[in-house]
Write a structure and sequence with these properties.
Layout: E1 10-12, E2 18-22, H1 27-34, E3 39-41, H2 51-57, H3 64-67, E4 74-80, E5 86-89, H4 95-100, E6 110-120, E7 124-132, H5 136-147, E8 157-166, E9 171-181, H6 191-194, E10 200-206, H7 208-212, H8 221-233
Antiparallel strand pairs: 1-2, 2-6, 3-6, 4-5, 4-6, 7-9, 7-10, 8-9
């Protein structure tokens, strides 16, 4: 077993356009480090998502529509290869390994440090909405519309879209967590969703670090949630 828990250094470049990050960090630590500089790195949406696991697997983000996945924003990897050699892989140095790491998982070595591009995003517009079962058809339609590219709105936006079912009560709910770069409350990109009547809604302008500080990720929770969702979608004949 290889423990990387001590690899938690963060270093911002002189021009602030890139940041070096140790492999043991999570995205909340990254966001908190970059917050005073008004910058972000493209990565995890929830507090305790690790930098390494998300990035070497691809890495969806709130800002994927504009900046790509987390892996697309890696400028360099520091990697320990199978023969114990420490190498740096970039687009011009060990380039085959660099491109293999773009979503290649841990198959090519152990990443000990990442260098990410950073972007000037001092504030984000956020939304939280909870919908009852009656609003779910409209909510699904709005998600589909959001997924279509819209060149009339800024695409530095994304969300987390969930559906929940409580077996003990039979209650069905949907939840929307939305984030867009900028300081416009209820931005146009989310208008199809925010127009739907909800039982709870909060719209705010904050920083990415402050937003994610309350969005913890209990280990294994989503594995349980997926089981509940699948049971809800299965009819009495088991089909």
């Amino acid at each position: 077993m290889v423990a990387l828990s001590a690899l938690k250094t963060l270093t911002l470049s002189a021009d602030q356009n890139s940041v070096e990050a140790g492999a043991a960090l999570d995205w909340y630590q990254m966001n908190s480090f970059l917050e005073p500089y008004g910058r972000i790195a493209v990565g995890g949406r929830l507090k305790t998502i690790g930098i390494s696991g998300l990035t070497i697997g691809g890495g969806i983000s709130y800002f994927t529509a504009k900046y790509g996945f987390a892996m697309d924003n890696v400028l360099a990897y520091e990697i320990v290869t199978a023969n114990g050699k420490v190498v740096t892989a970039t687009a011009t140095c060990n380039s085959d390994l660099f491109w293999a790491m773009k979503g290649g998982g841990s198959n090519f070595g152990i990443v000990t440090k990442f260098t990410f591009a950073t972007y000037k995003v001092p504030s984000v517009s956020t939304a939280i909405q909870i919908f009852t079962e009656d609003s779910i058809p409209a909510y699904i339609t709005a998600i589909a519309n959001l997924a279509n590219y819209q060149d009339q709105v800024d695409t530095a936006a994304g969300g987390i879209f969930t559906f929940g079912y409580t077996p003990s009560t039979g209650a069905v709910q949907a939840q929307f967590l939305g984030v867009q770069a900028g300081s416009t409350v209820k931005p146009a990109v989310f208008s199809n969703i925010t127009a739907i009547p909800s039982v709870f809604s909060v719209y705010n302008v904050t920083t990415l670090a402050q937003w994610s500080s309350t969005l913890d990720t209990p280990y294994q929770v989503y594995r349980s949630v997926v089981k509940v969702k699948l049971s809800w979608l299965t009819n009495t004949n088991g089909e």
